[in-house]
Every structure is written in C-alpha cells, then in structure tokens.
Amino acid sequence: MRTQEIRSIIDAALASTTGVISEVGAKQVFRALDMPVVEERVVNSVEDVSRAAGQIGYPVVLKGGGSKILHKTESGLVQIGLTNETEVRDAALKMLEKSGDTVEQFLIQPMVRGKREFVAGVFRDPLFGPVVLFGLGGIYTEVLNDTVIRIAPLSESDIDAMLDEIHAVELLGEFRGEKSVDRSSLQNILQALSDLCIKFPEVKEVDINPLLIDANGTPVAVDGLIIVEQEKKVKEERGAIDARAFRACFYPKSVAFVGASGTIAKWGHSLVANVLRRDFQGEVYLVNPRGGELMGRAVYTSVADIENSVDLAVVTIPARFVMDLLPQLREKGVKAMLLITSGFRETGEEGARLEEQLVLEAEKNGIVIFGPNTMGICNPSIDFFCCGVHVYPKPGPTVLVCQSGNMGTQLLAFAEQQEIGIRAFSGSGNEAMVTIEDYLEMFEDDEDTRTVVLYVESIKDGQRFFHCAKRVSNKKPVVILKGGRTGKGGEAASSHTGAIASDSRVFDAVCEQAGIVQVQQPMELLDLSAVFSSLPLPKGNRVAIMTLGGGWGVITTDLCLELGLAVPDIPEEIVHRLDSILPSYWSRNNPVDIVGENDPNIPSTAIAELAKWDGCDAVIHLGIHGKKLLANRMFDSVAISDPRYSESEIAKIKKMVGGMEDAYVQHVVQLTEKYNKPILGVSLLTEGDLRTLYTVDHCSHKGVFFPSPERAVRALAGMWQYRQWLMRQ
C-alpha cells in the first residue's frame, strides 16, 4: 500500500465540496493498493478523444467523468464497443450535449473481454464500522443482490467464506470456455479494501463495479468510485465493568431492598417475597422511610441505618428520588445497584437526561447500576431469585440475558417447565451502565457457563459487541434472537455497495463472522441451549433418521436438506441387520421407518445400529418417546369397558410401559456417551411429565426430546453451524 499517495488523494477530496473521488482518482487509489486496474487514457476535450482511442486500439470504451457524476451508466455516460474514430467522436459530443459541464473529462479504455462481472466495495455502518462487500456486479447489482458482507478487518477465513457464500459461486470456476477466476487475486482485492478502510477512517464508501473477469480468469477493476467524509468524533465508550460489582449483584451476601412495601401489587413487595420464599443464605434488609415492620421483619428508615455491610441495593423507589440515594450507598460501601425503577430513557428526552445524570453521579460514587427499568436477575446456584417473575429454573450451564422483561418471563418459565438449567439470568433493562457486552465479558471465562443466550433489540457499542462475541464463541456457543430486524438505516447511500446495506444484513454478517448462532423464534433460544449443554457437537452434517411412521421421516428429511444437513443412504450391512427384526415392507433406507411395530426391542436395536454407523454424524429419532401417553389412554378405556381388568392390573401395565420408556431414554443417552454423537428425539406426545431434558446417572450427556421435527432439526442445524465456524477458525 502506497500510503502517502492515497492520503493525498483523500485529502484533496475532503477539501472539495462533494467528498467524491471519481473514477480516475479511485483507480489511482486502487493501483496504490496493488489491485489490477484496466489501462486507460484521460483527456479533457473531444479533439483528444480520437487520438487517445487510436493509441489504446479499437474497440474501446468511452466514459464521461466528473466529480459530480456518481453513476455514469444511469446518466448515459458510458459507451462500449466503439470501433472507429467517427463513433468515438460522435459519442463524446452526445455526452457533452446531454450532460453539459458536469462532464469534466473523458476516459478511454480498451474493451476488456469477459463474461463475468462482480462487485467489490466498502460501506461504513454507523454501529459496526467498516463493512466489506463482494458479489455479482454489473448494472443489476441491486436487483440481483447476490452479495456477501463481512465486518473489517478481514481474516483469511473471512475472505474465503465471502468467495464461497455467493449463490453464483460456480461463476468462480471455469465458465463458457473461460478459465477459473484467479482466486488469490480476488482475495488480495478484498484484503486491500479491508486494509484501506481500517487505515483511512475517512473512507465512507468504495465501489468497484464491475470487477470484470477476463478470459484468462484475471479480475480487473474497470470502474470505481470512492466517497469520503471527515472522520466523525466517536463518543468515548465506558470501559469494562468492575468484576467485583458483577459478583456483588449475582453473588450477594447481603441485599438491601430500598423501597420495600407491604402492598402485594408493588415491586417492593413482590421482589422481597420472591427472595424470601427460597433458600437464599444471604442477609436481607428492608428499607422504607416509614420504618416499622414488613413481612415479619424490621424496616430500616435508610440504608445508613443498616448496621452491617451491604453488597447489593435493589431499588424500586420513584425515579426522581434515586439520585439522592447515591451518597447513602457510597457511605455504606455498596458497589452494585439493581435499579428496577422505570421512568428513565424509555419515557423520552427528559427521562434520558435523568438517566445520563444518574450514571455520571453513580460513576463518581463508585456504584455500578444494573438497569434501570429491569425485571431483575436470578442465580439459581445460590437460590437467589430477585426478579418480577416467580419461577424457579434449576441450576445449569446456560446464561440468559434479555432486553425485554416479557421475553425473559417466557423463557425462564419454559426453562423451569422443561428442566433446562440456568447459570444466571438478567433482564438488562435500559443498560445505562451494564450492557450486553459486559455480560459477554463476565461469562466469557466462567467455567460454569456452557452457553450464552441473548435476546437483543439494540446494541450500544457495535465494535465491542463484535469482538466480545467472537472471543466468547471460541470458548462456548453464543445464541441470539434479534428483535427489530426489519429496521432500515436512515442514511442514503451514494454507491451501489452502500445501497445494498441494511441494518439486518450487517447484523447477520456480524453473527456469521463472530460465530454467533442466530435464531428466529424465542423457543429456539432454549432449544439450542438444551442441545449445546447436553449433547456433543456433530463432527459433520450427515444425519440418520429413525421414525415410527413414514410421514414424519419425509418431513424431517426435507427439513434437514433445507437447513444444510445431509441424509445419506444406509449401507447394505445395516439394511441386512435390520431386515432380521423388521417386517419385509420397511423402508430399507434412510429414514428408517420401523412401521409402528410395538416390540420395544426394535427401536432400541435400530437406533443402536444407526448410532454406531460411521456414515452418520447425528441421529434424529421420532415417535418412540411419548408413546406411553397414548398407551395409558388406551388402558384407561380398557379399565372402563372391560370388567376383567382390575384397577391394580391396569396400574401395573401402565408402570411397565412407563418403565420401558424410561429404559429407552437411558439407552439413548448411553449410546450418545459411547459414540460421542448428538442423538435428538421427537416425542410422540408431550403432555403430563414429559420434558425436554432427561438426566441419566453416570452419564455426562443427557437425553434431549423436542415436541416437533422442525425444532429438533433446527437445533441440530444450529449445532452444525457452530461446529463449522469452529473448524474455520
């Protein structure tokens, strides 16, 4: 990179009124980056056009250029295939007639022969910074929109993924008599664009369109545009939160409830009741200016009156009084405030100003605010449930952070119902001080955390989020559901590259690049937490399917193929072994349809055959688990309709059937342990005591059962996506 040459071109554009580096200057930048650029002549008059064309050699391309011209083709300022002096001169005169003084110069280029056109470029996202783009180019770039984007700076694996992920990837190979594209040259171009936007933050957009592939497979920049603007002053971001404050919030030895109340409907009562209901071993203090007694406990009139130290202040008093509380907390040595109270940024400008003032004062007083406007936190490992919802998931390896109280309520309740263990939960609220990035950093090196699950609507520091998530993903899965995906960036783009940008596309790229597994539905968050915490990762994408009925097998196969999983044929040796236990009309292929046979040994034998098969990396089995519910209904009908069977006999039969199902679950988990493959079940019915996770003694893995094929397949696809990312790293 010839840095000084590029700097002078950028500075000249910044000094102009347009901030545009037109094609001539853009190509000078590209050459300074050692990119292959088409040969050309630049002239200022019609008289010089013919002479330059003769020097280049016919046929030629003629372009009208100028600092005010962004899209030459749309303006009729590109003529290709001109074969003689007359055609060149006439084309130049027509351009002047049409566009007048906006045409400041003419560019004459040789006709580069090639059947493939790509686009490469850069745009600067307001949240995540510079983004590099690659894909199909030409005049239909925005219409076809076959492009891939990544956040800069790019790694080698990022660039390889960009080239492989466009839908028209076959165009990079041999095409209609032309050689395969020089992949290393494309890699160098994308790397150069990444380096350019990192080295020069004034670069707002870069557009190389088309990036033409000649007959020898060499990419050549035949057109280009760069937009620059003065670097915007970035708001200084707050540093990482003190780990002691995090520990005080999630592992408090003493908690003061400021705003304790005797009214059931108020947060100051509900939160206290939630904590006292459990076996939390820390001290609990109630604070209310009225004093007296609440819930059988003495009430302190202020935090200062508490005789012992306080780790965490849980605050529910009105927003206008919170500022006056800070000096008391500082004097008491309180490091963490869980600010439940609403009435801040979420209410508008006045609330936002109050929140900003509160944060400044809290920083001065050495206090970390969690919230405000939060539904609370919980840490099941110490039986500390300080949140608005009275549900109690068991301890486990999944961290759950939600920017929505309602979403948090739903997910915690589901985790409790399905026995999915929770490491810690936080409703992050307005994130005035403690943000999603802080939570990622806190649990990055936490040995008890195996999966980090996030519901996110907004991110305050895009670059920090990206780098934090990428570090965490190298150690454990990060699963995210993004709310507000349909929002559009408000800034109009000047180039083809910038026009393709959107908030959701950039966020998708962040997830892909950082190894985040992104889901579309709330329940998928915990589905993935269940499989990541309970099963080994698949080593490949090949899936064996066993089903009690043909329809489920067909649906599951379709879902697998749609989500990038393969369903390979079963080898003859397995077919032969299954022939000995199944009727002659079984499917004899993958999926294995065991045709509704009632012999409990058949599914156990069949799934063992599939689990040990080297040709598959995961097994999905459908309809075996949950059969006892249908069987029990049948036995209830027998008890009513057939007097020969007593209640005790029916009860024994039900117990026997339940025991067989329990044995099957144990068998599945043991196969998971033995062959180190994920085995996912789909329950026939999910009423009663059926759940998602089942623990088996002396096994590190668990049985995982979903209520539908699509949830099982999506969970397995998420595991494979994460495994692929790890392999690329």
What's the layout of helices and strands?
Layout: H1 3-15, E1 20-21, H2 23-32, E2 41-43, H3 46-56, E3 60-65, E4 78-82, H4 85-99, E5 105-110, E6 116-125, E7 129-136, H5 141-144, E8 147-151, H6 156-165, H7 183-199, E9 203-213, E10 219-221, E11 225-228, H8 243-250, E12 254-258, H9 267-277, E13 283-287, E14 293-294, E15 297-300, E16 312-315, H10 319-332, E17 336-339, H11 349-364, E18 368-370, E19 376-379, E20 384-387, E21 395-402, H12 405-417, E22 422-427, H13 436-444, E23 451-456, H14 462-473, E24 478-482, H15 496-500, H16 503-514, E25 517-519, H17 522-534, E26 543-547, H18 550-562, H19 572-579, E27 592-593, H20 601-611, E28 618-622, H21 627-641, H22 647-675, E29 679-682, E30 693-695, E31 702-706, H23 709-728
Parallel strand pairs: 12-13, 12-16, 13-15, 16-17, 17-18, 21-22, 21-23, 23-24, 24-25, 26-27, 26-28, 28-29, 29-31
Antiparallel strand pairs: 1-11, 2-5, 3-4, 3-5, 6-7, 6-9, 7-8, 9-10, 9-11, 14-15, 19-20, 19-22, 30-31
Write a structural description.
The chain is of the alpha/beta class and 729 residues long. The protein has 5 domains: 39-110, ATP-grasp fold, A domain (Dna Ligase, domain 1, 2-Layer Sandwich); 116-228, 2-Layer Sandwich (D-amino Acid Aminotransferase, Chain A, domain 1); 240-365, NAD(P)-binding Rossmann-like Domain (Rossmann fold, 3-Layer(aba) Sandwich), CATH 3.40.50; 391-532, Rossmann fold, CATH 3.40.50.261; 535-728, Succinyl-CoA synthetase domains (Rossmann fold, 3-Layer(aba) Sandwich). The strands form 5 sheets. Strands 1, 6, 7, 8, 9, 10 and 11 form a 7-stranded antiparallel beta sheet that branches. α9 links the parallel β12 and β13 (283-287). The two termini are 27 Å apart. The relative contact order is 0.07.
